[in-house]
Amino acid sequence: MKKILKPITVIAAVVAMSSCGGRAESAQTPADALIEDLNALVEQEKIMYGHQDDLMYGHDWKLEDDAADFSRSDVEAVSDKYPAVFGMDLGGIELGWSHNLDKNDFDNMRASAVAHHERGGIVTFSWHPRNPLTGGDAWDVSSDQVVASILPGGEKHEYFMGWLKNAADFMASIKTADGDLVPVIWRPWHEHTGSWFWWGQKLCTTEQYKALWRMTYDYMVIERGMTNLVWAYSPGAGELSSPEAFAERYPGDDIIDLVGFDCYHSGSREDYMSKMKNALDITVDFAREHGKLAAVTETGHEGLKDPKWWTEVLYPAIKDYPVSYVLTWRNACDQPTHYYAPFPGQESAEDFKTFAELPQIIML
Ligand code: BMA
Question: Is residue 82 packed enough to be buried (19+ CB in 10 Å), middle (13-18) or exposed (0-12)?
Fold first, then answer.
């Protein structure tokens, strides 16, 4: 229950620290450069549009393994523009799988991240790792001892450090042909305010959750010296009853660069817009007080049954807030109604085109 209010001078110091703390020697790191670019866009009151798995598959197509070309996209097919932000998920990397939990070839993921970066886009990774204690998936909440078991001293600690290594190895391998590391917005341990993942609210204590973050950061940044990660914290919006709920498990200003939340449209327009307003008010205030970037890290209306969703629901909900991006979830190719971006002929496609042309919205 702590809301940390910082005077302006401290905020300036925090901004300075967060852009070089712990990772930069003297030259600007890929992460610092991305943070600077994101801040510049926010200052211009621009909001980037993002889509999960955009270049991997769409409503009725899927990339072949070991693809050489990453030009297909449902979003591009509708609007002639790619999303500025391209999200993907590392779930499965922990076990050395060749494909992630949604059947994306990890080689394609790496190559498409580079291709998107070289087109001027921004890449973000979430992670739905399997349950290291039970062997189940990320949604296996049958034990509340999982986080405890992977922290230092826990029975699965060494085992789990191997999982972090696999995730780190993958993100450290995303390089251009010239050998330049591609910066990524790295968003592990998301939606922790709910209790549907093994790292969720009722499955570990506040101290354990924060220790999990610290262990992840210390391994990747301090031990491995990774310089391409922009660290993102994103609670689930449904549980944000107060600013204190947002702050309760916040891992710390020295770890986090960007704060956001995940918020889905499931009921009426009004329900969604009021949930978004609440979460945006809390997140943007928190970001301002802590000198961090803000974003809507996941959102969407499954099946897009509202033909004017983009211009009459999403855009009005976000337009007055300094958020760097808004990312809608994936268009599954194997579940006909599980999509969050339009595709040609989809009933919100025309409205999406209008949204993508708005001066405030940045596509690639
Ligand atoms: C969920 C759904 C699942 C998917 C998971 C990870 O929200 O889209 O089908 O496996 O995200 O991408």
Answer: buried
CB neighbour class for 335 (10 Å; exposed up to 12, middle 13-18, buried from 19): exposed
Taking each continuous run of H as one helix and of E as one strand, the counts in the chain are 12, 11
330 lines ligand 1 (CB under 6 A): yes
The number of distinct structural domains making up the chain is 1
Whether the pTM exceeds 0.90: the reply is yes
Find out whether the beta carbon of 101 lies less than 6 Å from any atom of ligand 1: yes
In ligand 1, which atom is closest to the CA atom of 338? 8
C-beta of 161 in contact with ligand 1 (< 6 A): no
Domain assignment of residue 135, yes or no: yes
| Residue 26 within a domain | no
Ligand 1 midpoint to CA 326 (Å): 17
Give the pLDDT confidence of 185-201 residue by residue, as tens digits: 999 999 999 999 999 99
Cα–Cα distance, 135 to 128 (Å, whole number): 13
CATH of the domain at 313: 3.20.20.80
Distance 338 CA to ligand 1 centre (A): 9
Domain containing 119 equals 42-362
Query: What is each CA distance from 362 to 101, 121, 285, 323, 351, in whole angstroms?
Result: 29, 10, 23, 12, 16
Tens of pLDDT, residues 244-295: 999 999 999 999 999 999 999 999 999 999 999 999 999 999 999 999 999 9
Q: Kindly give the number of the ligand 1 atom that is closest to the alpha carbon of 330.
A: 8
Q: Is residue 16 part of a domain?
A: no
Residue 7 within a domain: no
